[in-house]
Amino acid sequence: MSEKIIIEGGHKLNGTVMMSGAKNATVALIPAIVLAEGPVTVFGVPEISDVEALATLLRELNCNVETFENHIIVDPTHLQSVPLVSDAVNKLRASYYFMGALLGRFSYVKMKMPGGCYLGPRPIDLHLKGFEALGAKITCDEDGTYEIYAEELIGTKIYLDFASVGATINIMLAAVKAKGKTEIENAAKEPEIIDVANMLTKMGAKIRGVGTDTITIEGVDHLGGCYHEIIPDRIEAGTFLILAAAAGERIVVQNVIPQHLDSLISKLKEMGVKMEVSGDSVVVYGLESSLKAVDIKTQPYPGFATDLQQPLTTLLTQATGQSIIEETIYPERFKHCAELNKMGADIDIHSGYANINGKTKLKGANVCATDLRCGAALVIAALIAEGETEIGNVYHIDRGYDNIDHKLIMLGARITRIEREDN
Ligand code: EPU
């Protein structure tokens, strides 16, 4: 049985919506806990299925895990080094953070290749090269199970060919207990990386330079427990800003760090969306006049986030003229376009590009969330479409959006969720 959601389009949304803790920080913070020798409490944990999968993996490693509302308490005192080969590994991409964290803790890790959304090829060569530079040896069997071990991890200089989020965090996790100094050059600068470094620092790690091109880590012998509160989810917030521009009258998006959304906010303003940014909230006013077409190019932070490219595509179908999206991070991340075309959009896809010809009237259809942010793009489309839209493969959306149905219903959306028999 899988679930689908049915959305009746055309109802204007109003009200206030609160953002949850950042998914892409959470999925690194939870594996990072295995580096601690005492209990760690993390606040602001979003209610998403990726967290459940990571909690399962922590339990497999013999951690005591308790979750209450929006926090998780993990006691890794009796942590054991066991191979991570269960289905939980495949449920998300970020299970690969256990590679760096367990390597840092035990100088050994055995786990199978992680899963996650298909966005085109997603190699982990930069992670592995980083581990090797720290002195690890790596084997991978025919089933894709990695075994990574080192007699001792020794700090060194690592230049990343690309400023990869995952590689930056994974190398940081492996290096915090390595002997001596590690320098990661051409490091990624996403806010989630800073959040992970902040928690590691509370645990006793010595890290400088996060948020710049060069991160310097002085290895320490022990890391202890701590309390940490996760930063707000900038991608969830960005999704709601776009959704508010498309389907809202006046929507207040709260628990936001507006600076994290600078590239989106400036594009929305260029399109003609009216917004008021203040402190930790953004007020978005729905459309009174027509939207202008704009071009976007996805780039590592602080450039335009690839994760917001898909939801923004939906809004661009409502802009007059042709918008061009250049996707430089995942050139194949355009599966949502075929689904939007089923609803009446006019989008041509070329290698690494999408041309969106607007404005088009969207109509309800049967569509499928092929990945997490495709799901978000379709929810926005369904809210503005004429008639009813059925979105299948909702589990992709549940991987990354905390209680999205509830948040939307509170704003006035008509959504129902039903189970359906799989063929
Ligand atoms: N890359 C390599 N080799 C590597 C690692 C990355 O070639 O070893 C390439 C990738 O193929 C891709 C680019 O580098 O073309 C960027 O990959 P990156 O490593 O930065 O991405 P990631 O860590 O796999 C995270 C987020 C993604 C988000 C990207 C880019 C998590 C768990 N995932 O992925 O989030 O799109 O950064 O910002 O943090 C999402 O939330 O929907 C999502 C997919």
Which helices and strands, and how do they pair?
Elements: E1 2-8, E2 13-18, H1 23-32, E3 40-43, H2 49-60, E4 64-68, E5 71-75, H3 87-90, H4 97-106, E6 108-112, H5 125-133, E7 137-140, E8 145-149, E9 157-159, H6 165-175, E10 181-185, H7 191-203, E11 206-208, E12 214-218, E13 226-229, H8 234-247, E14 248-254, H9 262-271, E15 274-278, E16 281-285, E17 291-292, E18 296-297, H10 306-316, E19 319-326, H11 335-342, E20 347-350, E21 353-358, E22 366-368, H12 372-384, E23 388-392, H13 395-398, H14 404-410, E24 414-420
Parallel strand pairs: 2-14, 3-13, 9-10, 17-19, 18-19, 22-23
Antiparallel strand pairs: 1-23, 1-24, 3-5, 4-5, 6-8, 7-8, 10-12, 11-12, 14-16, 15-16, 19-21, 20-21
Helix pairs in contact: 1-2, 1-4, 1-7, 4-6, 5-6, 6-7, 8-10, 8-12, 10-12, 11-12
The protein binds uridine-diphosphate-2(N-acetylglucosaminyl) butyric acid (EPU).
Uridine-diphosphate-2(N-acetylglucosaminyl) butyric acid is lined by residues 24, 27, 93-94, 117, 121-127, 162, 164-167, 188, 235, 306-307, 329-330, 372-373, 400.
